[in-house]
Amino acid sequence: MADMGVSQAELVEPRGDSGRKLPQYLAALAATLGALAAGSMLGWSAPVMVKLTNASSTDYDFSVSQTQGDWISSIINLGAAFICFPIGLVMDRIGRKNTMLLLVVPFTLGWLLITFGTSVGMLIAGRFITGVAGGAFCVTAPAYTSEIAQDSIRGTLGSYFQLMITIGILFAYVVGGYTSVFVFNILCTCIPIVFGIIFFFMPESPSFLVMKGKHEEAKDALIRLRGSAYDVDYELNNLKFKAEESQRNQVSYLAAIRKKTALKAILICYALMLFQQLSGINAVIFNASQIFADAGATIPSTISTIIIGVIQVIATFISSLVVDKLGRRILLLLSALVMCVCSTALGVYFFLQQTHGNSADIVQAITWLPLVSLSLFIIAFSLGFGPIPWMMAGELCQIDIKAFVGSTAGTFNWLLSFTVTSTFNSLNAAIGAGQVFWLFASIMLVGFVFIFFVVPETKGKSVDEIQVMLGGRPQQRPEEKK
């Protein structure tokens, strides 16, 4: 039985997947409205910076240089990296729900600074503050959704975070491309406010409430999430048992993260974040307009970015439908393999273009290749490496280190994003676009090997089962201890 990672009591008692799912879907969607706000923040630069750096721009009463524009675009990464670690401590102190509601304040303040900015400094400050709020949501929302969900739908609910991110980016591409900057900013300001109003009525994480000794509130939250006909006692007793075990074996963060299971979870979380940001997704997005043009498409760059946004949303939505059927591991492996092949193909195209010129016969004969590779790359990323690394950070860790690991992994992710974004153009100029894409392809090949040998399948597994898969011992319930 130990090999299965479950206790005897768990084998004979119901697993608790009979409750209503709709309240959990609604709570997860409400929580990830914060991710929608973060997505609009991420997509804001694409339509807006083209307008602001134009010498004839009248959207603000001051001019914005290209260098200043680069800082305005990328500063959100530093804001997100700045907050990821402390927000983990905050959400362990005041709760997942209260933390996310609190984030409405910096999100709104940041957008107001951007909307009514009178200088480049105000725009940079506003973007930094919205980056802080967006980065905090990247830690709190996945933790919340993983803790409110039953095992059978945990993957689906976890993928809603990335789905909302992509919808927010698409919103920015569409609305930002066809409205004034002022109107776009006002609409972006409204999103976190709407989130706060809706999420106010959602329950707190039952796991957090039990950890704080609020058992009656935890029971009420479970009933709200599972339905009034659901017998919550078994699940509540499991949460109490885990909380008591955690209290009895309470150790410092340093000691907790030195356990075998914790170290392996940290390794996997950090590695997936590394491979996500070094996959070349930013390079593909940066080259999207050129790729569309090289393929003979005569559509404007605004339309091409919208097409990319639509592809991301559709593929991420498909991922949310299949992640609890196919599993996380197979989607990550498929994602890494397809992205490796597509990056290789893009590298070949850009290398030939650089070597022989755009008008060479060999280049003209494969003008279809970059567009096909671009589309498949984005689909593969959205199916696997887009949503799953954030999801795994919430699934692999026990509640005593979940906030710490999720927050530090988030910090690592945003710092990598800033590094890749700020150095891509220099790297491209130094070694050539083709070689850059081959570098990304090799990284994804390493990622494929890592996933194949190290990353476990967590589909439908309980927290205890996942810990056993990471090398821990199965916990025994009190009635089993003789």
Automatic annotation (TrEMBL):
Main location: membrane
Record key words, sorted: Cell membrane, Glycoprotein, Membrane, Sugar transport, Transmembrane, Transmembrane helix, Transport
The keyword RNA-binding is annotated on this UniProt entry: no
Residue span(s) of domain Major facilitator superfamily (MFS) profile: 31-459
High-level lineage: Eukaryota, Metazoa, Ecdysozoa, Arthropoda, Hexapoda
InterPro entries on file: MFS_dom, MFS_ERD6/Tret1-like, MFS_sugar_transport-like, MFS_trans_sf, MFS_Trehalose_Transporter, Sugar/inositol_transpt, Sugar_transporter_CS
Molecular function per GO: sugar transmembrane transporter activity
Domain of life, source organism: Eukaryota
Name listed for the protein in its UniProt record: Sugar transporter 2
One GO CC annotation: plasma membrane
Membrane-crossing residue ranges in chain numbering: 25-46, 71-91, 100-118, 124-145, 157-176, 182-202, 265-286, 298-323, 330-352, 372-391, 403-424, 436-455
Subcellular location: Cell membrane
Organism of origin: Helicoverpa armigera (Cotton bollworm)
Family stated for the protein in its record: Belongs to the major facilitator superfamily. Sugar transporter (TC 2.A.1.1) family. Trehalose transporter subfamily.
